[in-house]
Amino acid sequence: MKIEQIYTGCLAQGAYYIESNGEVAIIDPLRETQQYVDRANKENAKIKYIFETHFHADFVSGHVDLAKKTGATIVFGPGAETSYEAYIAQDNETFKIGNVTIKVLHTPGHTLESSTFLLIDENGNDHAIFSGDTLFLGDVGRPDLAIKSDLTKEDLAAMLYDSLRHKIMPLADDLIVYPAHGAGSACGKSMSKETVGILGEQKRTNYALREDMTKEEFVNEVLEGIAPPPQYFAKNAMMNKSGYDSFEAILQKGDVALSPKDFEAIANQEDALVLDVRTQKDFVDGHIPNSIFIGINGGFAPWVGALITDLKQPILLIAPEGKEKETVTRLSRVGYDNTLGYLDGGLDAWKASGGDIETIESISADEFASRFKNQNVATLDVRKDGEYQSEHLDGANVQHFALDYINDNMNAIDKSKTYYAHCAGGYRSVIAASILKARGFDVIDIAGGFGALKKTDLPMTDFVCPSTL
User: Fold this and answer.
1) Under DSSP, is residue 344 helix (H, G, I), strand (E, B) or coil?
2) What is the mean pLDDT of residues 399-415?
3) Which residues are paired to 192 by β-bridges?
4) What is the pLDDT of residue 467?
5) Cβ atoms of 34 and 9 closer than 8 Å
């Protein structure tokens, strides 16, 4: 028996490859599926099943493409409804993969069809659970993503409580826990940075598995502090239910080099968004007018999903050389399938062709401190709510909203003002500055963000430990 976790850091997502005696099961595959086919071919094995723990909301799974490529059967838990051929398992149903068995444990709560897959080894012993978004290390899945007219998030939280107590907690302490996500995912609140754990350790340390916890206490605690889900979550979940275009077709359309002339023509004809994925310093120093910055080296795909509201938005790329294919791939992972190409030669080619270039003014924290003391400076803090509440710059002209919700806050800011924007370290504030600048606002970036501001003598609110918020 072979188990391999295939972890993708930018999504904080774990897919799984399980092989036994020439047969393979894939759990929660990524959009680009050739890697699983290649792994199976290397082992001279055949992919037999594709197990989906639930309809994922934070990424587009590769189950449909992989089934077409391999003839493998897609398996969902009880109650799932799809627009493509899939096998809907019953609770406690088992599936053979070589000499091992996978048992379906229906664990609704995160979503109604959510299931945990129990792996039983060659000797008939329980070996591991693939817990999807039902159980994370240090947390559990948010229960507010599958609300229907006759169900509330409280109803789903109550289901999750029962699933954990009746299906997960009775299992042996020595079982390995393979979750679908780790720290950084928006599918939970306080996940561990670890990506593999032991069930007994979770029973001892995970707040949601306390033996003396009542259902009412669980519901209150699991819902406390959950921010609204990013706008793309429901759209990705629908793609996972209904199907999608093949990844190879998306890549063929998007991984196309364009001359500056063709790039500009397509931008105008298609009303395309110019997305610059270089570093924030590169963007600050020079960029195409009205382009938007979301750097490939940050939390790229989730930020694209949070900020670009239309999955069908035509996109043109400014990417570091050699990163073009990766960028198209990472866009497709969250359902942005309408990339039309990238600028061949990057910004140097654009400059050489006579194209216009703009910059963003970026100042040091010390220079900002001087202006803050001597001018009526409007400051915009785009960190998350918890970051802001724990400590922030103290002043009458300090305004805050999280970058995630910038599109909802355009009416809260004034085009007659110059805003000094900061986040924690500089990545998010440049994203915010690019969006605001493209919409006609005057924005200056504070280099180094709040980390740099704290080293000045500017007034700050009293620090509040995030665990007490």
Assistant:
1) coil
2) 94
3) none
4) 53
5) no
Residue 440 confidence (pLDDT) above 50: yes
Tell the residue number behind the tokens 């050389």, with chain if given.
321
Token pair of 430 as six digits:
């440049």
Strand 197-198, strand 176-179: pairing: antiparallel
Q: How far apart are CA 280 and CA 294, in angstroms?
A: 8
Left if phi > 0, otherwise alpha if psi is -120 to 50, otherwise beta: which for 346? left
- Cβ atoms of 199 and 174 within 8 Å: the answer is yes
Q: Is the separation of the CB atoms in 72 and 47 below 8 Å?
A: yes
Give DSSP secondary structure letters for 26-79.
Answer: EES--S--HHHHHHHHHTT-EEEEEE-SS--SSS--SHHHHHHHH-PEEEE-TT
- Residue identified by tokens 């020439």 is 22
Question: Residue 412 has which token pair?
Answer: 């809260």
Residue 98, sorted as left (phi over 0), alpha (psi -120 to 50) or beta, turns out to be left
CA angle 302, 147, 76 (to 5 degrees): 75
* Bridge partners of residue 46, in order along the sequence: 23
| φ and ψ at residue 273, rounded to 5 degrees | -85, 125
Going by pLDDT thresholds of 50, 70 and 90, the confidence category of residue 466 is low
Dihedral sign of CA atoms 47, 50, 56, 62 in order: positive
Residue corresponding to tokens 């400590």? 391
Q: How far apart are CA 320 and CA 315, in angstroms?
A: 16
Q: Would you call 14 helix, strand, or coil by DSSP?
A: strand
What pLDDT sits at residue 9?
Answer: 87
Say how far apart CA 374 and CA 8 lie, in whole Å.
47
Angle at 77 between CA 72 and CA 109, to 5 degrees: 145
**pLDDT tops 90 at residue 192:** no
Residue found by looking up tokens 């990339």 in the block: 339
The neighbouring-strand residues paired with 399 are 380
The pLDDT mean for the chain works out to 95
Q: Are 18 and 48 in contact (CB under 8 A)?
A: no
Residue 353: both structure tokens together: 């062709």
Determine the 3-state secondary structure of 26 from DSSP: strand
The encoded tokens of residue 449 equal: 């963000």
Name which of 222, 213, 40 is nearest 139 in CA terms.
Answer: 222
